[in-house]
Amino acid sequence: MNAAPILPEILLGLGAIVLMMVSAFVRRASSVTHWGAILVLLGACAALIGAPQTAGAVFDGMWAADSFAAFGKVIIYLSAAVAIVMAHNWFERDQEHAAEYAVLILLSALGASMMVSATDLMMLYVGLELQSLSAYVLASYRRHDERSAEAGLKYFVLGGLASGILLYGISLIYGFAGTTLFTGIAAAFADGGATNLGLLFGLVFTLAGLAFKISAVPFHMWTPDVYEGAPTPVAAFFAAGQKAAAILLATRVCLDAMGPATSQWQQIVIFAALGSIILGAVAAYGQTNIKRLLAYSSINNVGFALVGLAAGGRAGAQAVLLYVAVYVVMTLGAFLCVLRMRDAEGRPVESLASLSGLSQTRPALALALAMFMFSLAGIPPLFGFWPKLMVFQAAVGAGLNLLALAAAALTVVGAYYYLKVIKVMYFDAPAEAYAPARSGLESALIAVTALVISPVGYLLIRPLSDLAANAASVF
């Protein structure tokens, strides 16, 4: 068999095994595994260039090495690399930056990579569980921190429940379609499946399980607690790379496996989209912890991505891809700024009150965080405005005018809590100054992400649109 279509996954798997052995036999191997994992992830990105993106179905149709998967994998691998960079200074002072952190990130990225290439429900489940099992450990990585242990336990229990719901949906679809391949499921839905009660129940349960993974309403309840309790680099990876993988997985399932039943799943997606936008906006109002606020922001942004998915077709898939790409940059930038929130003794600080007067004590950091907040809110001329416009246009093009109008109106509601952060930084009396920055690489990443979401980012519209259009052409 030609191994080129799965070369990135081979590199990730072998890299994780080798680095695990290094961590077992080399003293103080954290730096070695840290940089080794980053090289493996960059190598996996490079392997996507050599892998045939037109290879079509692999493993008898269970795997797709196409441009849609390649688009998602680049996002996942780069997000994982940033999460490893972020962890270096985060764990160093507490002597917690052990070598297994980078290995767990690699394994989680491998599972996420399988998710976006899966064209079979069993392959989908294997990738999802590999990603989830690593995520449970990462969430509770700080073993002596009660909040981290609580986050890992909540994520594990609720994740197990979601996996059960998903498996039940898969079993129903297999029972009534006779196959777990997406092509066979699509054929079953096309051949009277829209009126088959068993298939429809399977559709509902499968989408419910996937909704948990993307933290869409009403399966969002774990997100704020896990993001708050998990280490900040881990929360950043959850909000960026893992969420991107889950959204793209849901997109492939809906448009590929359940394409003929669009009118059935579209209602579910519209409900989840509006519910996520509303709850993500309203529930964030009273938050005093910056990581919980970003958790509700992620729920809110998932809602806008689902607006694009509800549109269906290639236009909807393209809008989702564009939204995910820009959202990941904005989210990683925001969490990189949160890393800088440390008191004079180097301990992490997460309260919004600690940002008071930041524009006077750390003007560059305040400017970067303000840009990310404005961009997440979708306020022009920052680049975050463009993907929201794209999903609205996709919804209007699909005849979902009321959905687009409601989502656009709710954008104003969500803007309040982003503006609240900016108000605290620029108009409140200064709080105690944060400790000086310790990493030039983190500063460089903040500068790059801020540049991308600035008006300069509009220079990327044509190439990014072309890449997304090419990726969406598989549907």
UniProtKB/TrEMBL annotation:
Transmembrane feature ranges: 6-26, 38-59, 71-91, 98-116, 153-177, 197-222, 265-286, 293-313, 319-339, 364-386, 398-419, 440-461
Keywords from the UniProt entry: Cell membrane, Membrane, NAD, Quinone, Translocase, Transmembrane, Transmembrane helix, Transport, Ubiquinone
Catalysed reactions, semicolon-separated: a quinone + NADH + 5 H(+)(in) = a quinol + NAD(+) + 4 H(+)(out)
Mode of membrane association: Multi-pass membrane protein
Span of domain NADH:quinone oxidoreductase/Mrp antiporter transmembrane: 118-411
Enzyme Commission number(s) of this protein: 7.1.1.-
Class in the EC hierarchy, top level: translocase
Domain of life according to the entry: Bacteria
Cellular compartments annotated: Cell membrane; Endomembrane system; Membrane
Keyword Cell membrane listed: yes
Quaternary data: NDH-1 is composed of 14 different subunits. Subunits NuoA, H, J, K, L, M, N constitute the membrane sector of the complex.
Homology family: Belongs to the complex I subunit 2 family.
Protein role: NDH-1 shuttles electrons from NADH, via FMN and iron-sulfur (Fe-S) centers, to quinones in the respiratory chain. The immediate electron acceptor for the enzyme in this species is believed to be ubiquinone. Couples the redox reaction to proton translocation (for every two electrons transferred, four hydrogen ions are translocated across the cytoplasmic membrane), and thus conserves the redox energy in a proton gradient.
NCBIfam families given in the database record: NDH_I_N, PRK05777.1-3
Name used for this protein in its record: NADH-quinone oxidoreductase subunit N
Species annotation: Sphingomonas astaxanthinifaciens DSM 22298
